[in-house]
Design brief:
single chain, 337 residues, alpha/beta, Nucleotidyltransferase, domain 5, six-stranded mixed β-sheet, five-stranded mixed β-sheet, globular
């Protein structure tokens, strides 16, 4: 490693993925992720189990990131870590480790906003968006329309007022009897179904905000009534149900996105977060972008879900600005963008 190289170790532990990444001079060298299967039998992430798994996984993941990149901890220029938002217990594991390592090595510490990092995942590889652009950030915990003016200059102009869209996917999938995590399974069945088979209401909120709690209730009552008439209704109509629910959720996302693009007056749009891996959303957004003449950016699948590569990318830009924090850093579960 050269003496002028900017080498950063980034750590992500906001939910149930333990991840570490090395970035050198703005180039991500690796992205090591340890997933947690322990939550599957509980039908959702159990915070206490998540934090315990992070404690088990963090040192091996960091070691693999360093050794895989051929970098010694003494070659590092800084340590970066997700400060929030996320599960407090999970965040504490990552932040505590990062603080201890940075202090031991006498290195600068960089705190990263998880949601800002999702947007900056688009700068890991080509093609990279041009500023300004709108990023639709969709995950299990967040749904946001972000006006991105520069790498570190972002403004949330619309967001969900209740459930995130990823939560809506998982909750409706659970109503259909699909195991956790249900969102990807719902997507898989939807490919075989008719998106217009069943109509579900679209909740309309003022401005550019979203609401996804209503569709869960609508699906609940719809299924209750149909199952009274036919106990096998879900089994007989699963692909069509999945396709119809997915179509409704995607339509809700795109209605507000179109309004945001028009309001801000940009022609470049990006999508980020775990739900950006959804094939129905990707397809519908690609069609919309083509019709509107927008330039669309969609990250690789490995950068859609929680990962340290996106944390590393955000940390690189913060390092260039010497935007460091003290070793008394504390995580914030509800950190705002």
């Amino acid at each position: 490693m050269g003496t002028t190289d900017i080498s950063i170790l980034a750590i992500e532990s906001s939910c149930d993925e333990t991840s570490a990444s090395i970035i050198v001079n703005g180039k991500v060298l690796n992205n090591i992720v340890a997933t947690q299967s322990v939550h599957e039998k509980y039908g959702g992430v159990v915070p206490e189990l998540a934090s315990r798994a992070h404690q088990e996984n963090l040192i091996p993941v960091v070691h693999e990131a360093l050794s895989g990149a051929g970098i010694s901890k003494n070659d590092l220029s800084a340590i970066a870590v997700t400060r929030g938002p996320g599960l407090m217990g999970s965040l504490l594991v990552g932040v505590s480790f990062a603080k201890a390592l940075a202090k031991t090595l006498n290195l600068p510490l960089i705190d990263v906003n998880h949601m800002q990092a999702h947007v900056l995942a688009h700068f890991i590889e080509e093609p990279r968006p041009n500023f300004p652009f709108i990023c639709l950030t969709v995950s299990g915990g967040h749904t946001q329309l972000v006006w991105v003016r520069d790498h570190l200059d972002m403004e949330v102009i619309g967001e969900t007022q209740d459930d995130a869209v990823g939560e809506a996917f998982d909750k409706t999938a659970k109503l259909l009897g699909l195991p956790y995590p249900g969102g990807p399974l719902l997507d898989r069945y939807a490919k075989q179904g008719n998106p217009k088979a069943f109509a579900f209401p679209i909740t309309r909120m003022p401005g550019l905000n979203y609401s996804f709690s209503g569709i869960k209730t609508a699906v609940l009552y719809f299924l209750r009534d149909r199952l009274e008439e036919n106990p096998n209704f879900i089994t007989e109509n699963l692909p069509d149900l999945c396709a119809s629910i997915q179509h409704t959720l995607v339509e809700m996302l795109l209605i507000k996105l179109k309004e945001a693009m028009k309001q801000v007056g940009v022609t470049e749009v990006a999508i980020a977060g775990g739900v950006s891996a959804n094939s129905g959303l990707r397809s519908a957004l690609a069609d919309l972008a083509q019709r509107k003449g927008w330039k669309l950016y969609v990250p690789e699948f490995e950068y859609c879900t929680d990962n340290a590569a996106m944390i590393a990318m955000a940390a690189h830009y913060k390092y260039l600005r010497k935007d460091f924090v003290g070793y008394d850093l504390v995580p914030l579960a509800k950190l705002k963008l």
